[in-house]
Amino acid sequence: MIFSDILQGAGHIDDIFPYFLRHAKQIFPHLDCMDDLKKISDLRQPANWYPSARAINRKIVFHSGPTNSGKTYHAMERFLTAKSGVYCGPLKLLATEVYQKSNQRGTPCDLVTGEERKYAINPDTPSQHVACTVEMTSLSMPYEVAIIDEIQQIRDPGRGWAWTRALLGLIAEEIHVCGEPGTAELLKRLCETTGEDLEIRHYKRLTELTVEDNALTTLDNVQPGDCIVCFSKNDIYSVSREIESRGREVAVIYGTLPPGTKLAQAAKFNDPNNSCKVMVATAV
Predict the structure, then answer these.
(1) 47, 89, 90, 118: least surrounded by Cβ within 10 Å?
(2) For 265, phi and psi rounded to 5 degrees?
């Protein structure tokens, strides 16, 4: 009847559409979900993916400064005095260091990395403070204070998503972000998407950084307190053996060492009463 009406000019071609749509939904049931699929695939406003974080008024503080400027120290002092907190770091070694320092300072703190979980008290009584690698950050647990360390890693093509996720999604009253000054503009733009203000605290390097006019030339010129940075495990072994052959004890750190071993080696190097005065380490 509809086709007849259309052919006789009593109907319009659009009159067929409801019947076509009903038939299409019978053949392709997922068409009923198209609106939901569009919402799921819309990646334009990532801040809206975290409604729990958007529901609270978060304070964002950017501790901006170069290496050895005390920015992480000031953030950690706030972390240790808070009722609850989470530290999000780029490396297992840093998370383990925060875990140990917190417990030594009397603030019970658990450790969560991709490889292990340690409890300050016991598994049945999780601590109110957690030190974790940034990929393991929980976005469902509320905290008073959160620290996101090395925020400049947000630009990393492989791991940057984890810093973005932590910054946008952490449910924390205060978020202390630590990193290089060059990240400030990006952080401002991200905070605009969440409607939050960014407080920037600037720090200067505590010790002067100088560049020598001449190359080291030979390992005979290595001085106490020096760190030799290598770019492969083979170089680590060869350089450390050569230094040890000159009668000097060496601390060695490379990426695949267990976190506990790395911390022990670093502690040996930093101990003024230890004879180990030279560090050999890989770049990452």
Answers:
(1) 118
(2) -65, -40
- How far apart are the C-alpha atoms of 208 and 95, rounded to whole Å? 27
- The token duo for 86 is 């989470």
Query: Which residues touch 90 (CB under 8 Å, ≥6 apart)?
Result: 133, 134, 149, 150, 153, 159
Taking the C-alpha atoms of residue 42 and residue 11, their distance in angstroms, rounded to an integer, is 39
Give the pLDDT of the chain (284 residues) as one tens digit per residue. 878 877 888 888 788 888 888 888 888 887 777 777 777 777 788 898 999 999 999 999 999 999 889 999 999 999 999 999 999 999 888 998 999 999 999 999 999 998 889 999 888 889 999 999 999 999 999 999 999 999 999 999 999 999 999 999 999 999 999 999 999 999 999 999 999 999 999 999 888 888 888 888 899 999 999 999 998 888 999 999 999 998 889 999 988 888 778 888 988 888 888 888 899 998 77
Smallest CA-to-CA distance from 111 within 130, 128, 87, 138 is with 130
